[in-house]
Predict the structure.
Amino acid sequence: MPISAAEAHVLIAAAHAHAETLDIRVTVAIVDEGGHLQALSRMEGAFALSSQIAESKAVGAVLWQRGRRIVGSTPVRAPRLLRGGRPVS
């Protein structure tokens, strides 16, 4: 199911708001069903390379059609910095 730019920005805003409640800084990548980047937003203070990591993890989640826990632990358990990526349905 395609995602509109407006929907992508709503998801980013929600993710940033949740990160604020946890007092963490995140980067959010939104990709379409083909793994093409639709939107990306890095919070101020987020790790500098997190943009590339977030996009790669989002693409991997779509192409493997798996959630963040599986992507973050396949084939080996990833460090906390690299965990993330969740398909939106």
Summary: Confidence is low (pLDDT under 50) at residues 75-82.
